[in-house]
């Protein structure tokens, strides 16, 4: 279902529809290519797009008495799955996987294929946006350093102190004798958590060392913004992901004006010529743990606290502190 849901969302985007829509399908490929079509990613994506918008698979099915019934004639993109994931140890199986990881994998595979075949449109570029991280020493408003990063996903972590317990009205209406409590979190609280500064215990800026605040701000918007809500944690013993039953309903329109506004330092910001305040080892640890699904700000603090020893040490720190609130509010 993770693959089906993602493909349906992607093929609602006009640029992707245009990229994989061939009016003369499949004759265009028979005339133009000699590659093995079973493993040709472009052919399989065009085939999926053609079937999805043909209308054939959305027609209702009827039995012999002309009664509608559920049939199994829907689109089953097994050949597309094989072409995309045959070399991936997890996605080639039929087990449930993380849809965000599959999104990252799919866009990278499609972009690699497009670059190899010199195709004009990059799928990844539809989702790319820039964020700027500002680092400010706590005892000096003038000592500020910044760096820019390119992202494909806006990740929202959970401020656990803002989670509220409420009554599930839908379940209550079905059986009023059972008191159904659920945990809920508002978009406003998540957004405040996103915009709040995080603290780094030890950092050097302009030759001065001490505790610093890190502000993350939006520098540019993508054509299509992908938002991930971290509704899971990890078992401290097995490191297995644990889903958190927290209801979260984002608004239909996201107001990101605060996230796109420069922090108020009380002084003019002078970006450093240094492209990154992190070493190669730190960036490797950060990349590895982000790929595991951990919050970026937690990882940065873990790197500082474990003195950049390695991935395992940072992972242990993140696991043992995952329910603590890193953001510092003034």
UniProtKB/TrEMBL annotation:
Provide a Gene Ontology MF annotation, just one.
cysteine-type deubiquitinase activity
One Pfam annotation, family name? UCH
Query: Signal sequence: where?
Result: none
InterPro entries tied to this protein: Papain-like_cys_pep_sf, Peptidase_C19, Peptidase_C19_UCH, UBA, USP
Q: Which domain of life is it from?
A: Eukaryota
Q: Which GO terms describe its biological process?
A: protein deubiquitination
What are the alphabetically sorted keywords of the record? Hydrolase
GO cellular component, alphabetical, reads:
cytosol; nucleus
Cross-referenced PROSITE patterns, in alphabetical order? UBA (PS50030), USP_3 (PS50235)
Is Hydrolase among the key words of this record?
Answer: yes
Q: Which residues form the USP domain?
A: 1-330
UBA domain location, by residue?
278-321
Q: Which residues form a coiled coil?
A: none
Q: Which PANTHER family match?
A: UBIQUITIN CARBOXYL-TERMINAL HYDROLASE
Q: What is this protein called?
A: Ubiquitin carboxyl-terminal hydrolase 14 (Trinotate prediction)
């Amino acid at each position: 279902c993770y693959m089906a849901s993602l493909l349906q969302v992607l093929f609602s985007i006009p640029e992707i529809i245009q990229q994989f829509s061939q009016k003369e399908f499949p004759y265009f490929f028979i005339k133009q290519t000699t590659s093995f079509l079973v493993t040709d990613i472009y052919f399989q994506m065009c085939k999926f797009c053609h079937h999805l918008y043909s209308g054939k698979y959305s027609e209702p099915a009827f039995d012999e008495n002309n009664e509608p019934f559920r049939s199994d004639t829907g689109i089953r993109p097994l050949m597309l799955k094989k072409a995309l994931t045959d070399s991936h140890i997890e996605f080639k199986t039929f087990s449930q996987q993380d849809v965000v990881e599959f999104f990252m994998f799919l866009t990278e595979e499609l972009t690699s294929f497009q670059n190899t075949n010199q195709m004009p449109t990059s799928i990844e570029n539809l989702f790319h946006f820039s964020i700027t991280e500002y680092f400010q020493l706590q005892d000096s408003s003038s000592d500020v350093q910044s760096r820019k990063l390119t992202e494909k996903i806006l990740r929202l972590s959970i401020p656990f102190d803002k989670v509220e317990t409420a009554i599930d009205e839908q379940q209550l209406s079905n059986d009023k004798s059972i008191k159904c409590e659920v945990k809920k979190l508002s978009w406003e609280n998540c957004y405040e958590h996103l915009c709040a500064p995080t603290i780094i215990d030890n950092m050097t800026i302009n030759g001065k060392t001490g505790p610093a605040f890190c502000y993350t701000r939006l520098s540019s918007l993508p054509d299509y913004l992908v938002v991930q809500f971290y509704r899971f944690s990890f078992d401290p013993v097995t490191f297995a992901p644990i889903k958190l039953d927290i209801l979260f309903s984002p608004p239909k329109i996201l107001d990101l004006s605060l996230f796109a506004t420069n922090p108020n330092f009380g002084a003019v910001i002078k970006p450093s010529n240094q492209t990154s305040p992190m070493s190669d080892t730190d960036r490797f640890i950060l990349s590895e743990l982000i790929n595991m699904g951990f919050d970026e700000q937690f990882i940065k603090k873990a790197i500082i606290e474990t003195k950049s020893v390695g991935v395992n040490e940072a992972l242990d720190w993140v696991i043992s502190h995952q329910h603590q609130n890193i953001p510092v509010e003034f």
